[in-house]
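Changelog-adjacent note: as of this version, every example in the card shows the full chain rather than a window. The one below runs 280 residues end to end.
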Amino acid sequence: MLCNQKDMRIDIQRLTKLPTLSYRAEKILNLTSKELTHLDELVYIIERDPPIMSKVLGIANIVYLGHYKPITTVKEALFTIGFKTLKNIALSVSIFSFFKSTQEKEKSYIRLFRHSVATGAICQIISEKFLKEASEENFTAGVLHDIGWFALHYAFYDHFKKIEEGISQEVSLNKVELNITGTTHTEIGKWLAETWGLPEIVCDAIFYHHDLPQNSMKYSKAVALVQLSNFIAGELGYSPFEVKVGLDFYKDKVYQILKLPDTYELISEVQDIIKKVENL
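Full-length structure tokens:
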């Protein structure tokens, strides 16, 4: 049955656990690198939650490209990958932990989590190795691009499973979403990101990652990178669903913006690193 888009938005925004970030995530979001005291504060916040700390260190070891020595403490992570990258990893993990739910949903939650981390890590690797540019915001945009799926999975699990079933019947993702919810995970993700005050570049990546990158007036490069990384994650087996989904990839438009090697050359470059996502 077709749901009303406005009603779905109201339902999501009325949920007591979704419209506002957790205390920990909000504290991390509000930290800046202007004052040295924030370094210790970030370490303190992460260390106070062992499950989050474990995930943060795991992701830090994936996105750190040196590979000379494993990162085993939060302070090592701080000095190895820097304040901004560590902060963005911690923020992402805090947001994902927010959506952790029942054992019934654990397998599908893990799939969403691994897909998201793989996409963020691929953004990071391509940014640093091929584009030669700062990657902190690109990582965050990549890792949070599917936050709308997490919201649906958490709050409307029956809808999420129906969408997954519809995809398995080879119906287009967009059509299935609209038929079942009256909206899309990109719309839902954007509503949440704006409500939480996430950076505009992240909001655009969430909203446009299945569209032409040029539809984002200010952040088409970041959107193109997320769309490419999302596609590569799927090709490497990190689908957000139990079935493989044909992820939207406007290759010609993406490569108009990003001057990169061919997609399958990029895949061969990142596949060994991304295997570490399995250990998270």
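Structural remarks: The chain is about 65% helix and 0% strand.
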